[in-house]
Design a protein that fits this description.
Distance between the termini: 53 Å
Number of domains: 2
Shape: globular
Number of helices: 11
CATH class of the largest domain: Alpha Beta
Radius of gyration: 24 Å
CATH superfamily of the largest domain: HUPs
Order of helices and strands: HHHEHEEHEHHEHEHEHEEEHEE
Strand content: 5-15%
Helix content: 25-40%
Length: 364
Amino acid sequence: MSDIKIDILLDQIIKNRTERREDIQFINSSIPQYLRRGAGHLESLCRNPERQYYTRCIYLSKDEVSLAPILNSAVKQFKGQVIFGSYPVVDHNYFTTQVTMESAEQSSVDQAHQYLISQIPSNDVIDYDPNAMANATQSIQDIINGSIKDNPLQLPLSSTFQVIEDCLSRYGPHEVCVSFNGGKDCSVMLHIIYAAWKKVHPDDGLRLPAVYIRGQDPFPEMERFVEETRKRYDLELWTVPGPIRDGLTAVLQQHPDVKAILMGTRRSDPHASNLQAFQMTDKGWPSVMRVSPILDWSYQQVWTFLRQLSLPYCTLYDKGYTSVGNRNNTKPNPALRLIDANGKEVYRPAYFLHDCLSERQGRL
């Protein structure tokens, strides 16, 4: 029962509310941090150490309404054996609905899972890894080692990981930091660096330093994503105002030990065609080593990596943005524009763009 969720605990409390009502009045609080603090107490109230619970999940691209007949059928089929839960999700990068199955019997939950999979169209089922963070190092090593046969990311990922390992061996933990602005490229880079960082510093509690150079008029969606990413990777995040040269100057003044900054630059970016993986900043810029681990990645490889490993990315990319700057210089990419069945103008997600040369068409 170690993986039991708060919602399961609440379901159990509700079933027993007439017996232990006086113990659970605090659950009425609507303040999230108080609810989280009370979760440990909830488990002590509900947990039977002699009973094991088993859980499985299915992630779907369809909403609850369209799934209702199938879910109702499953509830009847496994009544008294399996508890089902259906949870709609708004603005998720990968799925619209999460369906959970819980039971005290492994065989029952497995049968329920198999039944639902057989009833739901296969193209509605999303292959999603909810433990992408915990699995980061292993997932990346599996690709590099060829455990996933014919994976197109094996060569670029191997090269990138080598650059990062080289950087972490050249510089101490307080001499490097990651440049992170919430974009797709630096999201790829950050995840790979995180895996390498955990490999080098598995249990010493060192947080990965990162810098966010905030533009003049950032998208609120990007600001939220940067903050979510800080929490997700437990970054030591330094936020400074731009433009980039001024922000970099401020970072190096505030953190003089920093000697190398890892950046999500690719060769298709402006002024990057002749860049090397390790290269000092140009004359007139603050002096620091620029490390570019994904320099030779293509646009398609970036999206393959993000979606293959179920990694979060800013929701702007699901709305047709393919290269994101600030609100005053970025629009959805016209190459992804289409008119839907209702005659409304919509934009396909960024990962549907196949012509990498048009990646920056939305930048003004």
